Here is the input.
Amino acid sequence: MNFRRFIITITVALLSVEAISINHDKVEPIPQPEPVTVSEKAAVKFKPELTIGKGTCASFPAVNTAGETSGGLKGSGGTGGCKVSLLGSQVYGRAQWYNDVWAIMYAWYFPKGFWDASPFWRHDWANVVVWVDNPAAENPKVLGISLSKSSDRYNKEVPARLANGNTPVVTHYNRGLNTAALMSSSTSSGESPLDLIMWEQLTDAARASLNDKENFGRSDVPFSDENFPGRLEKAWPF
Here is the structure.
């Protein structure tokens, strides 16, 4: 085995080691880097505002730079343990062309999953896909948005309701006899936007942990390598 192949083998082995799960309130968010690429600048420009509806958990970071993942919380006890994320939270992003439209997915993690306004399982994700004409344009425009209402179903808005012409405002809320979902508004919430970390800005360890479907129970990471293409297909609004 030559040296280069040895290094690659060791790297893959290290990333394949089962990620460490830590308490949900000990995962530190990753600071938002300065955007450099066209994709990163567009993602920051259209970063949504998230508000939390009554009776649901606040969003929390899912993974840290070391690849340690949130252990989540048992699906019981209402919003106990998840009303506030004292370390701050995170919005995750991933973008690519899809059917000649630029798709930016923004995703949030929650330590409990809700059904009929009650917590039922450990871990949950919600996401919105913002469809943009061209991120490299001088003034890129939002063509529509798709808001998750379950793991792989979306409410679709064309045209999109936006605050100040650029910002999707979404609320994570409980629905009767259904899972928690996102709904949109055209009025700014006044909430400070969370730090955004794009897929390519994550550390190798963090990406490996998000790609490991064993880390988040029944709740799939919507922007993982395995799930991202299928979610865009489900979210397509045109």
Remarks:
- The first strand starts at residue 21 and ends at 22.
